[in-house]
Write a structure and sequence with these properties.
Helices cover 41% and strands 21% of the residues. By secondary structure, the protein is α/β, with parallel strands linked by helices. The strands form three sheets. A seven-stranded mixed beta sheet has the order 3-2-1-4-9-6-12, sandwiched between helices. A four-stranded mixed beta sheet has the order 5-13-7-8.
């Protein structure tokens, strides 16, 4: 049986600060690197080419899963590992991937992800293991391209890996706020598409009820407080996404 090969695929936009570390973490096992770039204005494309990536430049679609799917469609190897530029594959994870894809009866694998937030990895509050379906056989996985936090849909049996994917999500609060703003914009558009009610009961639910419930559920029930002040801050902003998104939705209506 021939050795199984891996295509690492990414969609990028202005990721010069992250991309080198990401590609360096996969260069020893990736058989090809595919990048669809949304017309970056920094050095993202130049960095990608230094690592031998096959780069296609297109528009920066607000639904970034569209460009991710374009990269997936361009892959030519047996397996696809879909990454974001702020993620890192450890040597232990690379070894496990190599072992699992040989003679596997699975068509996809869920990978645990450790998220870095303001100086530490968040391990409580429902944030870890944060399983994400990123490894699957070529031709058997597809992104729905409908939701910001969607998972790939694969045609067949899936398993779970043990070693985590490292996600350097928010090394600074400024970066977190940029992502938070983009995320709540997207949710507001979803509310608009669904024509979410603007009656007083719904407004109270989204502006008060959901935020309070989510904060105490993650901070106390899921022990985010054990992640220190970072865990509490993450839970707080995660909870107010309902109110911020709903307020943006009202402005759009």
């Amino acid at each position: 049986m021939k050795k199984q090969t891996v295509s690492v695929v990414l969609a990028t936009f202005n990721e010069e600060k992250n991309l080198s570390d990401c590609l360096e973490s996969v260069q020893n096992f990736a058989d090809e690197i595919i990048i669809v770039d949304g017309s970056s204005t920094d050095n993202t494309v130049e960095i990608a080419k230094k690592f031998g990536a096959k780069v296609t430049i297109t528009e920066n679609n607000p639904m970034f899963h569209v460009n991710k799917q374009k990269a997936i469609d361009m892959a030519t190897k047996d397996w696809i590992l879909q990454l974001d530029a702020d993620e890192r594959v450890t040597p232990q994870l690379a070894k496990e991937i190599g072992e699992k894809i040989e003679n596997s009866d699975m068509v996809g694998y869920w990978i645990p992800r450790k998220n870095w937030f303001l100086g530490r990895f968040l391990m409580k509050g429902g944030v870890y293991p944060d399983y994400t379906l990123r490894l699957y056989k070529n031709g058997l996985g597809k992104l729905p391209q409908k939701d910001v936090h969607e998972q790939a849909v694969v045609n067949g049996k899936t398993g779970y890996l043990r070693e985590p994917l490292i996600h350097i999500a928010d090394p600074s609060f400024k970066r977190y706020l940029l992502r938070f703003n983009r995320y709540t914009d997207f949710i507001a558009n979803q509310y608009k598409d669904k024509n979410l009610s603007k009656d007083p009961v719904t407004m109270l639910e989204y502006m008060v009820g959901k935020p309070i419930f989510w904060f105490f559920w993650t901070t106390i029930r899921h022990k985010a407080i054990l992640d220190g002040w970072q865990g509490v801050i993450f839970s707080f902003f995660s909870s107010i996404r309902f109110a911020v998104s709903y307020k943006k939705y009202l402005k759009k209506s």
